[in-house]
Model the fold of this input.
Amino acid sequence: MKHTISVLVENKFGVLARIAGLFSARGFNIESLAVGETEDAAVSRMTIVTDGDERTLDQIKKQLNKLIDVIKVSDFTDKKYLEKELMLIKVAVNAKTKKEVTEAVDSCGAEVVNTGEKSLAIEMTGDAGKIISLLELLRPFGILEVVRTGRIAMGIDDKEMKTPGKPEVNE
Amino acid sequence: MLDMKMTGAQILIEALKKEDVEVMFGYPGGVVLPIFDRLYDAPIKFILTRHEQGAAHAADGYARATGKVGVCLATSGPGATNLVTGIANAYMDSIPMVAVTGQVKTRLIGNDAFQEADITGITRPITKHNYLVKDVKDLAVTIKEAFHIARTGRPGPVLIDFPVDIQQAETEFHYPEKVEIKGYKPTYAGHPGQIKRAAKAISSAKRPILYTGGGVITSNASGELREFAIKNKIPVTTTLLGLGAFSSDNPLHLGMPGMHGTAYANHAIMESDLIIAVGARFDDRVTGKVEAFAPHADIIHIDIDPASVSKTVEVDIPIVGDAKHILKGLLKYTKKPDTDAWLAKIDEMKKKYPLKYENSDGKLRPQYVVEEISNITKGEAIICTEVGQNQMWAAMFYKFTKPRTMISSGGLGTMGFGFPAAIGAQMGRPDAVVFDIAGDGSIQMNIQELATAVYNKLPVKVAILNNCYLGMVRQWQELFYKKRYSYTCLEDGQPDFVKLAESYGAVGMRVVRPEDARPAIERSLEITDRPTFIDFRVEKEENVFPMVPAGEAINRMIGGMA
Ligand SMILES: Cc1ncc(C[n+]2csc(CCOP(=O)(O)OP(=O)(O)O)c2C)c(N)n1
Ligand SMILES: [Mg+2]
Done:
């Protein structure tokens, strides 16, 4: 089963290597990994999508928590959360298909961001389902390149709100 | 003195003093010259080993014998990589250690400079945490954090990589009073609700058993363990790293479980209805085939590391926290279960399947040597071991009575650990009798440390159970590979250990007959200013029994059952 976990880490040298190293050393899968600064420049957030049964997920969370640079691990399984991913996709077009592709893109809520001679560059933001359906829709036209950021996620349960500016510590 | 400018090297020494470091072990080199210059007249005893691996193991042995943080120091590149085995060893056994390595100048890092190695990269998976100091202003805080992380929670090694230009750079020194690490807040007090639940389960258990490990020793909880076990009449099995936490002369003591455990410890686990694991991690050498492990038992798991809980076996009542705190809580809430029938059954098993060996044919047996060391030292010596059969015989036949007296490489199983660890232990406990129970293979892996022991006048006693084989590997070849002894015979090329010891200025003795064992051991106890090697020429093809073949259920034992 797929799980989205969000990891708050110290924004320090080598942290990404620690996290990646932990996953490879313990044989855990990383399906995608997105990293960026948070509201606090000293803290980064990593959103990791991983695959595994309950027991594996439990170990992943515990092992992440053991890393000194990890401030907090949140697991979104069974929680209310938003999940988004940005995808750039380049599709082959010709005079005939250009219009068709543009219509498909519009119908999905995506956007054409560059129009070339033989290709269109398209930007799409959405959850995994939307991203996949756009990919499927465009596949027949000839996909030249796909660039995805990996998923980012944010909890939206008001009950779980933290006090602003004060990151919580380990469970 | 406050806020005076100091160089990085000076700050290191001052910080070590603040951390009450009395002894450190290491080896010099180009990029640690500024530190060595400061060590020249520092009030810290520096032990120059003859190999950096020896320094790391000595720091480890020192930590195990004293409970303090062991400190080792090496130069960059090859010095740092020579520490790696010792760091990994300390990591696997949760030993508090701070390793300091020199590094090339910060502006050369990443350029394949002379003697550059990415030691923080190399040691990331084998340290609890590590640091590369890039600014002298961060140094004091880094050292403070390193010691704090090394000794708190589940202890472990922390490495500080210290570039030579930072050693020379200057800043004001103030050592922080406190550490504040957002992501590191180990839990000590166990959850009160869980403690009560556990106490209730224990109170109503019929066949409870305590399975205790190195965590009991780390948390200095032997006193609480003894009180809890005796008061509630619960039998105790102790892992290799836990030996000594519960005195082996107590009738409740069952010895070690697992692959080379006693038959009665293993049977008791298999028949138990409640396992109370304290500071032990259900290692595969203990559980054997996990699916078949303790089929009738509920499991209470007390451990300071949440990640150890439910890692290999499903746990019914987890309690995360410090063993000492939690045992105190359990003592308060547990009502003594009725274990009379259970203890009678265990006694029967003890009588039926005792630890034994052939002892009537006049041959010198390794088990006998260990028993004699045990008798003569009354179970009160510090026993370091190497790895292999020697280690298992030491664990089985030495009657440990005190915590911090069994010093053995458990998780990593590092040949060559015992002798430098014994040097470290002797440095930490100058008045103790320290033995290294060794194999002829293992001792040759760090034999250069004879020089260190001689130079420092350390009366460490090395009992080589010399079978002229890599005995444990030979045993597996005998049992599982049709006696094809592929590259395990050490006879040709084996040094004369007596002459070798003498050439370093140590005492060498050789024992070939059982009746000569006792006088030799007694003589070694009289030597107080130098190490002694005793070359015990034991039966070459003696095996360690009982034994559970790898991957079998722990009651499927070979040998020692009839
Ligand atoms: C550094 C290292 N290399 C290899 C091994 C694998 N190994 C385990 S026991 C053993 C034999 C040890 O021989 P010896 O020290 O003579 O002890 P004995 O078993 O004969 O008592 C070997 C090679 C190991 N544990 N450590
Ligand atoms: Mg041998």
In short: The first helix of chain A runs from residue 15 to 25. Confidence is low (pLDDT under 50) at residues 166-171 of chain A.
